[in-house]
Each structure stands twice: as C-alpha cells, then as structure tokens.
Amino acid sequence: GNCAAGFGVCCIFTVSATGSEISQNCTYIVNPNFPSNYAPSSTPTTLTYTVKKCSDDICRLRLDYDLFTLTTPSTATAKDGQCTTDKMTIKTTDRTTVPGTGTTGTYGNYPQLCGTNTGLHSYVDLSCTSTDEATISFTLGDSTNNQYKVKVTQYSCNDPCISSREGCFQYFTGVTGTINSYNLANSKQLATLDYTNCIRQEAGYCCIEYTVISYAVTGTQTCAAAATRCASASTCTMEYIIIPNVINSGNVDLNYDRFCGVNLNPVGFPAANLPLKTCQCPFEFSVVTGISALGGTGAAATEDGFSIKYRQIPGGC
Predict the structure, then answer these.
(1) For the segment 267-306, what is each residue's pLDDT rounded down to a tens digit?
(2) pLDDT computed for residue 251 by the predictor
(3) CB within 8 A of 149, min separation 6: which ones?
C-alpha cells in the first residue's frame, strides 16, 4: 500500500509455507489457507519456519501472537495439560532442547504452547554469533483449530530495553500491566512450563506489587491453614509461581518466594487473595508446571491458570 503521503510504499512480509526462511524484520508467520483454518492432508504434520538475523547485532526475537488458536491440551490423567495434539515449539542454534511429551515429560529451553494464546507474546534469545537462527515449528495433529498469525520482530543487542534481560520468555514495560498465563482463554493451564516473566523497572520505581484478577495454579490446594499453606517449597511442589523476596505488610521478609493453590497472599493462608509486594530487582515472575502432567500423573487437575495485575511502587532506590 501507499504511505508517506503517497511518496513511499509500505510492505508487509508474510510467510506461510513450511520450510520458509525469514530474514526481514517484522515478518508475519501465518498458517496455510490463512485467514481460514488449515486442514492438513495428513496428520500429524509439522510446519517449520526458520528466522535468520536481519543484521549481525540481533540478540532477541519477539513473537506477537496476533492470532493463536490450536487444539487445547490433553485432559487425560497421565498427560493432563500436555500439548499432545497440536503444539508450537521453539529452538535456536545454541538452544536445541524442546519439551517432550508422553507419560514422562521433559522441560525444554523454551516452553511448548497450544490452545488459545491470541494477544500474548514470547521472547527468544539469540547468541552473538551472526549465523545463529531460530526455528519455530507448528505440529498439527488434527484438522481443526489450526490458525495462527505470529509477528516476528528482531531486536538489536544495543537496544537498552531488551539486550540486558536475557532469559525472559515474556517481557513487560510500563508502571502497570497484566500478566496472563498461556491458554487462560480456555481456562486450562499448560503442563511442562518453566519460564520467567520480566517487568522493566521504570525510572523512580523501586518495588512492585502483584494483585490477583483470577488465580488457580494448583486446583487441589485449599490454602485454608498453615499446614496447607499455598506458599513455600515444601507445600508448592507441582505447579507454582516464583516471586523473589515477597514481604508482608510489616515489611518483614518471610523468605517465601514460591506460591501455588487457589489463593495468592504473602503467607499462603488463609484462603483469601492479598497483594504481594517485593522490592527485589530486577522484577521477575517465574512459572513452573508439572513436567509430565498437571498435579502429577496420578489424577487430573482443575487448574485454570492466572491473571495477575502488577503495579510498580515509586520511592528512593
């Protein structure tokens, strides 16, 4: 189309065929037959897209899921939460391990995603080697719910907001914002997750507070008393979030950084949601779910995931 008052031409780069290579910044990956559903001639089938650096100084990729609708995860007891039918996986030249499925799952360098994740995003780290590249794969195990449109943005190592935060699968900016778990739209948490959300510390803000919008990270844990508290490494062993050095209202460090259950509060009980505040920088919020299945392989779990609002708190740092 036209741009710059008719003196320029705007280009949108889009790929859909499996085996496509991406070397232009801000390229879109879309499913074949987009915007309609893609029904492969045989299943399972895997479509792969290779992202090559558009310049030698690229260190990060941002994947924006403008549309992401795949089949929801399994509800079978031994594989509850696993992406057994459809999945998106990510690997790079120097990070080649992808999550495994089956009765014994494995974590990967990056999580695998399925279900509905429209509006969410992910970051991918690339090494300083100019030839380092990323491979994004969609494995489709059925003929329905196979729609995706992913914007791939490449960031320079010199970008002050991005290059300093390696290891952030999601990255948020701004004084306030909302962090949602993947597949929250389907009220089903994904298994085999181990990743970190990072929040950029804004100038003049030294602490951060997290408040629940919705929260069900471990469905069987009631958080009603100290013995079943939804905090600590001893009681949160399957699915949990990690927020370093949360303090209570009296500014006493409780040494709790792991939280689970159906309520979120600094001491893990009683069964009520209370804000969590920490002044440890950088601001990070990590997520871990069962390596093989939600709640272990012995019983299916009711775990919706979470939606949590954050608010940075000003002060003298």
Answers:
(1) 888 889 999 999 999 999 999 999 988 987 656 667 899 9
(2) 47
(3) 28, 29, 30, 31, 34, 35, 65, 66, 67, 68
> DSSP letter at 113?
B
CA distance linking residue 265 with residue 230, whole number of Å:
8
Pairing of strands 205-216, 246-247: unpaired
pTM of the model as a whole: 0.92
Grouping H, G, I as helix, E, B as strand and the rest as coil, residue 66 is strand
d(CA 185, CA 117): 7
Q: In what order do the strands lie in the sheet with 87-92?
A: 20-22, 45-52, 133-140, 87-92
Low-confidence ranges of the chain (pLDDT < 50): 251
CA angle, corner 162, sides to 280 and 26, nearest 5? 145
CA distance 204 to 315: 6
